[in-house]
Amino acid sequence: MKHLQTIYHLHPAASDRVQQRLAVRGIVARGRELLLLYTGRYDDFSLPGGGVEADEDHTLALARELAEETGARDVDILRPFGLIDEFRPPRGDYDVLHMLSYCYVCRIADTLAAPQMEDYEIRNRMEVRWLDVDAAIAHNEAVIQRCDAGMGLSIVRETALLKLIASALDNGEL
C-alpha cells in the first residue's frame, strides 16, 4: 500500500519500547460528501474505522468497524488509498505508540442501519454525518488553530487524510 505520510507527535528514541497498533479507515464518498464521524468530546471530524484485531483480515475489520460506527451495510472495498503512520505518546506499558492506519476507498449500501457504537464512542458523543470534505477540513483546521485543551491527537491525522482525499477528488482519482 502506498505510504502517504508519517506524523510525529513525539520522536522515539532507540531505547524506547514501541507498541504497534493497526487500524483500518474507510473512505465512503457521495460526490464531495464523505461519510464521517463527528466526535463531540473533541469537536472534530474523522473517517470511520478502528483497530484490527489479532489475525483479522483488513476487509473483515473494515466491514465490522463501518457497521459498528456508522451502520454501513454491504461494504465493498474498491481499492487501497494509502497508509499513514504516526508516533504517539503511550497509553500503556510502553514508551511510544506506533499507529498504522490503512485507508481504503469503499462503497456501501444506499441506506445506513443503526450504528452499534461501543461505550467509549457513546461517551465521546460520536455521531454519523455526511459532510462536504472541504467543510470538514475547515472545521478541523479551526479546532487545531484554537489548540483547545481537550483536543485529541487524531485530529492531525484525520485532517491530513481529509486534505489528501480532497486532492484526490479534485484530480478525479477517487
Account of the protein in words:
With 174 residues, the protein is α+β, with helices and mostly antiparallel strands. It has helices at 58-70, 119-123, 133-146, 154-170, and strands at residues 3-8, 18-30, 33-39, 44-46, 49-51, 76-88, 96-107, 126-132. The chain has a single domain (3-169), classed as Alpha-Beta Complex (Nucleoside Triphosphate Pyrophosphohydrolase). The protein is built from four helices and eight strands, in the order E-E-E-E-E-H-E-E-H-E-H-H. Strands 1, 2, 3, 4, 5, 6, 7 and 8 form an eight-stranded mixed sheet that branches. Helix 3 (133-146) runs antiparallel to helix 4. The chain is globular.
Descriptors:
174 residues, globular, 8 strands, alpha+beta
Q: What fraction of the residues are assigned to beta strands by DSSP?
A: 35-45%
Number of helices in the DSSP assignment: 4
Give me the CATH superfamily. Nucleoside Triphosphate Pyrophosphohydrolase
Number of strands: 8
Gyration radius from CA atoms, angstroms: 16 Å
Shape: globular
Order of helices and strands: EEEEEHEEHEHH
Q: Helix fraction?
A: 25-40%
State the CATH architecture: Alpha-Beta Complex
Q: What is the domain total for the residues?
A: 1
- Secondary-structure content class: alpha+beta
State the low-pLDDT regions, or none.
none
Overall mean pLDDT: 95
CATH topology grouping: Nucleoside Triphosphate Pyrophosphohydrolase
CATH class term: Alpha Beta
- Distance linking N and C termini: 16 Å
Largest sheet: 8 strands, mixed
* Oligomer status: single chain
